[in-house]
Amino acid sequence: MRRVCRYPLSLALCCLLLVLAPAASATLPAAVDGEPLPTLAPMLERTVPTVVNLSTRGRVVEQSPLLDDPFFRRFFDLPQAPRERQVQGLGSGVILDAERGYILTNYHVIRRADEIVVTLYDGRRLDAEVVGTDPATDLAVLRVEADHLEAVKVADSDALRVGDFVVAIGNPFGLGQTVTSGIVSALGRSGLGIESYEDFIQTDASINPGNSGGALVNLRGELVGINTAILSRGGGNIGIGFAIPVNMALQIMEHLVEHGEVRRGRLGVMVQDLTPDLAQAFGIPQTRGAVISRVEPGSAADRAGLREGDVVLQVDGRAVRNASEMRNIIGLLRVGAEVELEVVRDNRRHTITAQVAEIEMTTLEGGQISRLLDGAGFSDIPEDSPLYGRVQGVLVASLEGGSRAARAGLREGDVILSVNRQPVTGVEDMRRALDGAGQRLLLNIRRDEGAFFLLLQ
After folding, report:
1. Which residues on adjacent β-strands are paired with residue 90?
2. Catalytic residue from among 212, 299, 370, 418
3. Is 138 a catalytic residue?
4. Which residue is catalytic, options 108, 134, 185, 380?
């Protein structure tokens, strides 16, 4: 059998292409076979001016972990005053209301910022003021005073489908306006621990540091989400990015513009996902829903007649897929609003109407009960916290920088599990445990996903 050598033919073909390449690139056709070449340029020319770059400047108080140790400070005779340093940040924002100058961005972009500068697409630099923030959803509304602003058009994010093409616009790494494209990889992502309320759009459009607060738009240039976070091992994009659906963002923005904060209501229930095993145990065919595992006595849910073991299928006509989705829906309702729940109880469907109540928080000032805790504020774990129902303890709700409690090593967001080896499940437990505790406090603290003991004296 004679073998055919293909290399000379390949070489000749490559040479021919090299000869023709300059002419081809210089005369790139506007159309092929009468069809125009696809391009996103016309859409982007309309949309990019609605996305702004943000730069922030602020101060943070920091202290070496070694200086948190009172024995280390005493041994080396070190000062207890914490250090203060200036920090700068970059991010993006989207103009939602051109007439009033409202810009939507992420809370973490402007957190602790003393100065926020907005750079428009045309190069104008404007000082921005904070209208309101909501750390639970990582959203914030800014306002600038300027003429000739352009607001983005808004789509219905509930109509998104996996596979839809999307474009991310933002300011990655401070490079300036940058556009990347991809598809919707998944919808309804939750349980990631990024925010208290999660219902993310997942996309493979490149999102990097600096893109936070920028726009995720469809191919018509309509806003479908606010780019917020990435899943990454090294800090760069690996094709897994998350955006807050614009429908949720607009509800939060309405609260922030009106009140400067989100006044969330509560039903007074603990819920868990309806798993296939639970569905079988309850004898229902559905595998999507939220099971009420506890009803607080005297709560709005109790007054409405909800019971433990009820399976919630819909809230105000919106299907509930899991416990996280139910928390999201309830958490966006105003205090006093009536909500209609469709539940399954004893294999029968019921419609129950409840009135959303105000969240009542029991708080405690540490300095009032122990000088060792001066500067710290404590509260029960709120219902809108992802730890609610999963962790029993007392939340460090506030902490004054440089205070005695801060110097001792406490951090805002810590959860105190026990005091002097006595478990505490709420503020009143902690008050009793601290009564007559003396000059030494041994605290068992949960921080992030870890736990440790801290001695205060």
Report:
1. 55
2. 212
3. yes
4. 108
* 108 catalytic per annotation: yes
- Does domain 363-456 fall under CATH 3.40.1360.10? My reply is no
DSSP string, 259-272: HSS--BEE--EEEE
List helix spans (H) across 27-82: 41-47, 70-76
Give CATH 2.30.42.10 domain extents, the chain: 265-358, 363-456
Residues in contact with 264: Cβ distance below 8 Å, sequence separation at least 6, in sequence order: 136, 331, 332, 333, 335, 359, 384
d(CA 437, CA 372): 11
Active site residue 255: no
Q: pLDDT tens digits, residue range 216-229?
A: 999 999 999 999 98
Give per-residue pLDDT as tens, 375-420: 888 888 876 676 776 788 888 888 887 788 888 888 888 999 988 8
CATH 2.70.70.10 applies to domain 40-262: no
Q: What amino acid occupies position 5?
A: C
What is the fold of 265-358? Pdz3 Domain (2.30.42)
**Which of 321, 293, 317, 318 shows the shortest CA–CA distance to 307?**
293
State the Cα angle at 449 between 444 and 454, rounded to 5°.
25
Task: Note the residue count of the chain.
Answer: 457
Tokens of 377: 């504020």
Q: Which amino acid, residue 342? A: E
- In the chain, CATH 2.40.10.120 covers 40-262
